[in-house]
Amino acid sequence: MTELMSRIQAAETIVVKVGTSTIIRPNGKMNLMIIEKMVRVLSDLKNQGKNVILVSSGAIGVARAKMGLTKETISIPEKQALAALGQVNLMSVYSKIFGEYGQVASQVLLTKDVLDGGEREQNARNTFHTLFNYDSIPIVNENDTISIEQIRFGDNDTLSAIVAVLVKADLLILLSDIDGLYDKDPNEYDDAELIHVVHGITEDILKASGNSHSDLGTGGMKTKIAAAQICHEHDIPMVITNGDNPHNINKVLEGEEVGTLFVPYRKGVVNE
User: Which of 20, 58, 80, 103 is close enough to 98 for a disulfide, judged by CB 3.0 to 4.6 Å?
Assistant: First the structure.
């Protein structure tokens, strides 16, 4: 673990994913206080010379509130249209706040078929590295406007893990509406305990992942475990921590025990 913590503290390329329930209030309005704090933390990381990618959900949630849609079920064309409306608003806010901290934000929208192992995948990788060279902070989301079932990531937890693999990131941090992975559902059990370190995705870990309690996001703990499995197989440490305090990002990089750390698999190395 000492070696792993040293790797995390020295991370140069960091992917941070923030969920809808963290940056969107229950009434559908943006939580500008959380967004501003998170942008300030990420901007400071960029000022330290690190490469930073933000994978952000929230576009559809923003647009639903803006258009006054309160019904629970919306059609695919509605979702795609809302994604187009909401992404503009979301990027406008990010661009403005990042700009106030002297950063240049960029937008990258992806669909699963870009990961074809060929030219399109290499083009996506080249785009990220060129944006790093331009000192930009890429903001990534799934391209919901054109996505169909066959080419959807399905959730931004998976998307963030794929992006981390694509750019060979040193660390993935998932900012959630929960402190991390618990041994049982903390919404139902008062004696639920936070699991600080996970060394492998076992049946017990899958059982502990439970289901999402948010009606805004598409993910939940199960999708975070799926993301952890991707990172585990590609030697990328991943941490789930509470996004209500964006300074948890700094705490993770300082080696503090916040949230749940998923230890990656390294061939020939025993992580203790």
Answer: 103
